[in-house]
Target: Carnosine N-methyltransferase
Amino acid sequence: MNDSSTRNTRKMRNPHDDEEEKAHFQRIVAAFKYYRAHSLQRVAKTEKYLRSLPAHHQALLENYHQHLTEIRACIENNYQIIKLIIKDVAYMFENVNPTGPAESGKAVSLHPSVADLEKVQATLKQFVRDWSEEGAQERETCYQPIVEEIVSHFPADLCVPQDVRVLVPGAGLGRLAFEIARRGYTCQGNEFSLFMLFTSNFVLNKCRGTNVYRVFPWVHQYVNNLHPEHQTQGVSFPDINPADLPPSAQFSMAAGDFLEVYTEKDEWDCISTCFFIDCANNIVAFIETIYNILKPGGLWINLGPLLYHFSDLPNENSIEPSYQVVREVIVGIGFEIEVCCIPSA
Model:
């Protein structure tokens, strides 16, 4: 999908199997569509139990009963945003038809898994970090050092920023890649999760203006709330107009597995990874690919922990080397470490 005002593209690249891709696409759409029913069922269950309590208990919980009504309203609001997110998603990708019937005849389940529904909820929370005023401090901590390093290494007085090609794997909702492109660099974000891709497409290609939408990201946080309003607090987005890019900006998003999409050697001047490299089953494969696709003398900037996404997940293989071992791998593959900042214990 192309939008001339933001120069963002979406492309499904290198699918293993069109049928598998189609079923996966439809499964994620179903999870978004089921958000409202699933969320309201949770509220209805609590309300039913509340009505079964002794009358004097219910009287003491009158404010809580009103709070559940407010939660319902927040869920309804979120669902309006979700409908905008999944509207026209079938046209996001250039080389697949994800909405047509599968040749296998297998229907996508009308009741998505709990894991997929939790990912919908988690995606709503991503609005906070990437596209709200409330997330500014976190972006200042995580994204700004990366942007500053790029500007320092590729200053406008020594190079043409548009000629510098920057890749951001694990781009999420696209804010870091957007900020790099806003400085004039040619930037591509890469993302595997369709939950993130659907939502970033909505923000980057559909949102115009600032703080035009409102989401309630913590409405599903039922425990450990100090005040009722903490659960029903709303957040406006986007805090900046996604259309505010330089006329010459080259900014795109590519969908797919990082290891499968990026196979061309010596293609990128800079690769910026933020909370990404520990998302691999085999972190060495990520580091090796980064080295191979960087141009000779290219720059890799990395920020984030080693939480290892697949660690201890059933039916998933994973290695979890320590930082010291990861550093040995980085040097062994051929990188020269120029700057290293490790927080003190």
